[in-house]
Amino acid sequence: MAVIKRAVEITTTFSPREIQLLSALIIINPEKTSGRLSQINTGEGKTTIVAMLAAIKALEGHKIDIITSSPELAKPQAEQQKTFFNIFGLTVGHNGNDGGGGGGGGGSGTEIKDQYRADIVYGAAGDFQGDILRDEYSKLGTRSGRKCDVAIVDEVDSMLIDGKNHIVMLSSPMPAMDHLEPLLATIWIQIEETAKCIREINGKDYYIQQEDMINDDGTMKSDAVEHAFLIEGTKEEFIKKCTEKHIRKILRDIEHLTDDDDKIIPDEYPKIKIPIHLRELVTKIQLTTWIDSAIHAKYRSKNEQHYIIKNGKIAPVDAQNTGIVQQNMHWNNGLHQFLQIKHGAK
Predict the structure, then answer these.
(1) What is the pLDDT of residue 18?
(2) Name one GO molecular function term (predicted).
(3) How far, in Å, are 68, 102, 296 from residue 151 at the CA level?
């Protein structure tokens, strides 16, 4: 511990305080079958304590994974402690995007494999999970044969409480998904057009329907006649119902149209063709979910609150927990695509 203390003094402008030394001593001597959980108050220097622990365990021959509370902390903490670790001949890396991998960064390149050959690797829980999946499931060799040895978790409450519902899954493009882009765009357009026809009158929502402005002889009518229909239920429910009916008619999905009148579709009614192998997925499984996602994107997802637009791309924000921008994450069930349509983003 005296050597570790001296190394901190050489690489920084301060000497470790008693609380830091005592914390490290307590944590490095757990029972063989258990770990240690320590509460370190804010301002007591957790980053230094973690680095001291990592150096001690690495000198014992272990590979150390330091789990940070966010991906953004991995690279700066690794670089900040690099000189300290190098004093002992230890190497340090990180698994964030700049390291070549990360929870959504791919993880199969040479750079990320080199990072995992280091004695000590910094990274967020989701990035470690993603790279383990790529290594063990996709057989990409992402972790360069690195085993799960010693884990030091910074802010364990962030991982186990704030992030308890976070799930990491590997994703890949669905075959022929590009054929569904016109359908998603049509869903968005229909929702927008329906919303334009809704007005609030005396605290109630009405659907305003305007008669055709052109006479049978081709001349323009002098006065526009509007009809207002009271909306039963919520505005969003009405928009969903109208949109679903229109889209099913466009798809000629007569089986799932509930009203007999709607099942009689004129030949001139707009039509979208989708690949046969995707038709059941669209009509029986995904359509209502996509419409829900489009409505969510229009009315409930807020820019600068639930997501930000960075470099022309939608980046989700962990609004309920840490408030961190999750650049590697994509929402599922079409929500991400509808937000892209909403803002003209990539």
Answers:
(1) 92
(2) ATP binding
(3) 11, 17, 39
